Amino acid sequence: MPLQKLQFRPGVNRESTTLANEGGWFESDKVRFRSGFPEKLGGWTKDTGSEDVTTPKTTFAASGLVTALEPTTGSFWGVCRALFNWINLSGYNLLGLGTNLKYYIQNGVGGTFYDVTPIRDTATGVANAFTTNTATNSGGYTTLIVNDAGHGAQTGDFVCISNTSGPVNGVLAANIDGEHQITYISSSTYSITVVGTATSSSTPAVSANFYYQLTVGSDVYTTSVGWGAGGWGGATTGYSSTGWGSAAPAGLGIGVQLRLWSQANFGQDLIINPRGGAMYYWAVNSSPSTFDRAQIIKASTSITIRGSTVTPDSTCPSLVNTVMVSDASRFVIALGCNPIDSAGTGIESYLDPLLVRWSDQESVSVWTPDVDNQAGSYRLSQGSEIITGLQTRQEILVWTDAALYSMQYLGAPYVWGFQIMGANISIMGPNAVAVANNVTYWMGTDKFYMYSGRVETLPCTLRQYVFDDINLQQSYQFFAGTNEGYNEVWWFYCSANSTVIDRYVIFNHLERTWYYGTMERTAWTDSPLRDYPMAAGYDGMLIYHEDGVDDGTTNPPSAITAYCQSSDFDIGDGHNFGIVWRIIPDVTFDGSTVNNPTTVFTVRPRQNPGTNYGSTDNPDVVSAQNYQNQQTYNVQQFTEYAYVRVRGRQMAFKISSDALGVSWQLGTPRLDVRPDGRR
Fold first, then answer.
1. Which helix (H) or strand (E) holds 652?
2. How much is the pTM?
3. 175: how many CB neighbours lie within 10 A of its CB?
4. What is the C-alpha separation between 506 and 413, in angstroms, rounded?
5. At residue 180, what are phi and psi to the nearest 5 degrees?
């Protein structure tokens, strides 16, 4: 029998059985297809920046976190769900990073993550502010009870304390002034842990100032009951909300959505919005090391922008699901927000999830429609809520849970026009959309879609694999991103038995191929302003992908396990058994960083589709070249023959690697097969 060439169709296909997909690939992990051939994904490294724990943050900021609360080097607090990169007029390369606990701004690769989380409430000069109990002393720390009636905080919230008037029963004021994480006790008390040992149990006459940061959010979708359940700390029924920090109806199990952020540039500044909450304005300072906190955009509350002030009018929305800023004339757009009240002088207390409102052009403060401005609103008709919006080349796309709208600037008097581009569609969540090569792609609840002027179902060779093993309850965690260096759109999602992101699926829009694997990430952005695509991990790290060939988030770096396995193929026409006794490899190791990199070829035989795979052979294919510090390569030199001994009617081929410093791309290997009868 002549040599049998192993030449498979590009991409992975799991829409049929492994034998019906003969001539294709069936499984993959950490592998992509380039020019039709599988290769190992690029590696990743971690950003070295850490949270700012020393720099004062405006007048209320304190000296920093207590030692027990400091994040590890190269990390930030919470689970990141938003990454947004831009450059300001001074050339600072800024990255907005929103987690379920905080919002950060980073200046440059490896720069400090500056905490710009908004302050929701302040209490100054609070008398008899602390109570100690010697029974809570432990290992050089003590638990302080803070006495502040109506603090409105919940467990996990952060508070900045300043101007503590003196020591508290032996605990130094310098150890109290700072940022602390709260444990809720009652509506008038909570506890914090500080360095020091209390000498007595009492409430001394010590006062302090308290600055409460924005209430923290959940990192996953949960079902809660009682206080704080529903919305973001408030129960929600229909279009009405009982408000942040309010009690939910007793005995009801209410879904609590995870904390998501939307953000957009307003000039060189940034507008941010925690889903279901208020909008906030963050202004760039002249120095990248003195970042102030974001300020609330609220009716009759002044915003200071580099020495100037603006005051939003009385109809400025206070509850918003998604904020955008249009390129056309720079309108601030609120998707899902408070409507204006019947008198036209204020806003309703509830959030209308289908209402779109926009400010006057070039303004964050003018929201009341008038003949002299272009502020306005429009209520969508299809669906029950707006899920998300995205600005594209010629229009703003707005998704509800049932339709896709095109939002286009018309000018006065209508300002913005809306057209339904697709009905009876779905979308998985606010971050499940990406644009590549002027085409918009998104993940629905049971299929993938694309929009290039019209809505179409995106053919997917992994549809059954993805949507038959998926946790739809956690759909708001799912997110999309692009990797334009390889013409890819990535989606990250939770498998059926997971409440955290553990899977990815990739569509190569140039070669129209799909492949998949396992990976834990929480956010992604592919910005041309930085050298590599950026992602966030569950360990509070910012990660740069396609940098190196190993997992650089560990110290020392660890190997990435990558493999790709074919569907079954027949020996001949399948009527004879065959013995494979030799493989002639065809593989490149370009990009490897070690001497003599190795990959493993596996041949897996079996008799018929219903039987298990038999004994396999796993020969190593070893490069004869040294790749360390080598910039150019000659003709590839590696194992000339790989000897195996497997017998079967059909077989599957697998290439894999799990060693440090290895990069590979498969070519067209060949099998040397001998006929071996029909039984």
1. strand 650-657
2. 0.91
3. 19
4. 44
5. -140, 155
